[in-house]
């Protein structure tokens, strides 16, 4: 069987510029992997004298429409989310116009002239070519990609005592989902909290209680592990009512909130009071839902799934189907970290580091979150902040799982970073994370033999934001359609660059550490996901201590990153209905809690101490304060 994915790449023939547009072809690779090939229109731009830059055409040509210009907003969506065949046709048309324009300008500059003015004309030609300095070859070239395999999902059903394993495309979560893997964490002391000023409060209570009874019956949960909720009616406008909840020392409360901005304000206030460090051991977990959604059975069931994950139940596990099994990446000895940020106007930027000791579990029990506040709109954090975030997260994780379970590998995923910030990011954050690991080892190896023997390999991967590239599959007859399988693009349209990391000074000797980074695109296709909502993600590997490139483990990394997109527990039952999240689970968790944390920051806050959380809530963000240290870094 032969399938082709097409795109276009246009190559520069006469000057230092090349335009890019993409084209994809499938060949056998592994038993379940395939080679693909595609197209891009590639361009080299002359940025400065004697310096050439390389970029993609889609990064410079983006269609933007104002909603005020049209009466029907669907017209904008039809234009901006056109099928891939229409997108490529547009780009091909644009490239053809540019090619002809370049030829016309070049032909005008080549008029026959007298010998005495030939030199002047040549200077004019150079000036014209600097204005439009390229000629694009319309012929496409093919590059390689790989078709990825859907991961398997493991979960409990009511019909079997042991977990079942099936493809994420075949899960029947709503109809057959049963208990939880490894036993159930009980939910006994919890409450429903409604606004006493809300005229629909009684209906909200009745709907939530009805949804709870239905949820317990459908999941087949044991009566000994669950209890009916208490009901609290308080005035959401009175802070004293919030504090009264703390006296009950609940395990969890579920809040029925109003819509719009007032609902967000109530949510932030509840979080600040019920989960602050001042609440101490009486702090509790929170689950919010809009009061008007309390009558929707699907929303209620999803809310209780989230509750069960928050208190520590394992809803499912993901088997990533790595090509080399556990030979290169042993997931039982691998921790994953995600770091994302949230920008809000006139507020500090909240940055969350999310570390999981069991990244393939659908649960919050293995997650630990540390928080740093950066100056507003600033993406990169300082070396000291990165070191402290990593150190604090490691400390929390080891307190939870023990030093005997320290990992062989740490795979670090960083989100929301453009290409032009990678040099700065490496010198500050990558070095800082490595320093945080070394700092943890140096501090505890004297008192803990397991820490003393511990050796860890760090792999650091950046997910670049604002990727405009789109890909299409070449079908019979030369037609282009949407890609109908998950895939990774790693050749031809990706980078081959070397960057100078840092100058390392030791014993009066200065050496440059040169590091090669490589990048790839992941196409997170799913059967139930619309083409217009599927966008590729570009990843750049900045550090590879595991030696994936040398050990033949690059395809394991591709498959793992795609599989991690199915681990964000709050999206259940995503495998069947919506497909994977846009980014891997560690980044999705980090982004989720960064957004939530930034909502808790008020203009009246004068100290970071006002944002600290209770240590009882080990799977909620904890504020980290950067410290200076003199430790040298690899």
From TrEMBL:
Keywords: Membrane, Transmembrane, Transmembrane helix. It holds the Pfam family Piwi. The keyword Membrane applies. The chain crosses the membrane at residues 20-39. SMART domains: Piwi. One of its GO terms (molecular function) is nucleic acid binding. Residues 252-602 form the Piwi domain. This is Piwi domain-containing protein. It comes from Reticulomyxa filosa. The lineage of its organism: Eukaryota, Sar, Rhizaria, Retaria, Foraminifera.
């Amino acid at each position: 069987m032969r399938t082709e994915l097409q795109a276009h790449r246009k190559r520069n023939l006469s000057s230092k510029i090349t335009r890019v547009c993409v084209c994809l072809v499938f060949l056998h690779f592994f038993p379940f992997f395939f080679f693909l090939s595609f197209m891009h229109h590639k361009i080299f731009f002359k940025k400065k004298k004697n310096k050439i830059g390389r970029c993609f055409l889609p990064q410079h040509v983006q269609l933007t429409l104002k909603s005020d210009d049209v009466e029907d907003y669907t017209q904008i969506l039809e234009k901006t989310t056109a099928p891939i065949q229409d997108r490529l046709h547009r780009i091909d048309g644009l490239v053809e116009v540019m090619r002809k324009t370049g030829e016309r300008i070049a032909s005008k500059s080549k008029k026959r002239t007298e010998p005495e003015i030939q030199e002047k004309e040549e200077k004019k030609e150079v000036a014209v070519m600097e204005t439009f300095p390229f000629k694009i070859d319309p012929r496409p070239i093919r590059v390689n990609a790989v078709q990825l395999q859907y991961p398997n999902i493991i979960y409990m059903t009511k019909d079997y005592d042991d977990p079942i394993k099936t493809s994420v495309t075949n899960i029947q979560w709503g109809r057959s989902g049963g208990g939880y893997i490894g036993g159930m964490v009980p939910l006994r002391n919890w409450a429903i909290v409604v606004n006493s000023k809300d005229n629909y409060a009684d209906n909200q209570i009745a709907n939530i209680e009805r949804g709870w009874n239905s949820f317990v019956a459908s999941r087949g949960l044991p009566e000994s592990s669950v209890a009916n909720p208490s009901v609290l009616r308080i005035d959401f406008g009175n802070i004293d009512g919030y504090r009264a909840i703390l006296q009950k020392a609940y395990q969890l409360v579920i809040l029925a909130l109003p819509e719009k901005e007032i609902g967000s304000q109530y949510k932030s206030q509840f979080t600040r009071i019920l989960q602050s460090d001042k609440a101490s051991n009486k702090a509790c977990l929170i689950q919010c839902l809009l009061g008007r959604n309390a009558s929707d059975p699907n929303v209620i069931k999803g809310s209780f799934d989230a509750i069960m994950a928050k208190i520590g139940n394992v809803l499912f596990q993901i088997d990533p189907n790595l090509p080399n099994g556990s030979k290169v990446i042993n997931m039982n000895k691998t921790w994953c970290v995600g770091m994302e940020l949230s920008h809000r106007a006139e507020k500090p930027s909240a940055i969350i580091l999310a570390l999981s000791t069991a990244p393939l579990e659908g649960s919050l029990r293995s997650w630990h979150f540390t928080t740093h506040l950066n100056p507003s709109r600033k993406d990169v954090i300082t070396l000291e902040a990165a070191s402290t975030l990593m150190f604090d997260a490691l400390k929390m994780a080891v307190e939870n799982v023990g030093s005997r379970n320290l990992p062989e590998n740490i795979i670090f995923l960083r989100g929301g970073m453009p290409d032009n910030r990678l040099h700065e990011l490496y010198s500050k954050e990558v070095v800082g994370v490595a320093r945080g690991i070394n700092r943890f080892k140096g501090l505890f190896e004297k008192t803990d033999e397991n820490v003393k023997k511990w050796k860890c390999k760090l792999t650091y991967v950046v997910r670049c934001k604002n990727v405009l590239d789109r890909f299409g599959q070449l079908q019979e007859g030369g037609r282009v359609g949407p890609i109908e399988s998950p895939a990774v693009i790693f050749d031809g349209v990706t980078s081959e660059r070397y960057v100078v990391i840092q100058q390392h000074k030791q014993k009066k000797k200065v050496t440059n550490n040169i590091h090669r980074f490589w990048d790839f695109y992941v196409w997170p296709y799913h059967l139930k996901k619309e083409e217009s909502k599927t966008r590729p993600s570009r990843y750049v590997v900045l550090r590879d201590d595991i030696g994936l490139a040398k050990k033949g483990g690059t395809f394991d990394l591709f498959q793992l990153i795609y599989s991690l997109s199915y681990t964000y527990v709050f999206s259940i039952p995503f495998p069947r209905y919506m497909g994977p999240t846009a980014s891997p689970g560690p980044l999705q968790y980090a982004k989720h809690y960064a957004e939530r944390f930034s909502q808790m920051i008020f203009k009246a806050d004068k100290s970071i101490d006002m944002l600290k959380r209770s240590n009882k809530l080990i799977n909620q963000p904890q504020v980290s304060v950067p410290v200076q240290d003199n430790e040298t870094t690899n």
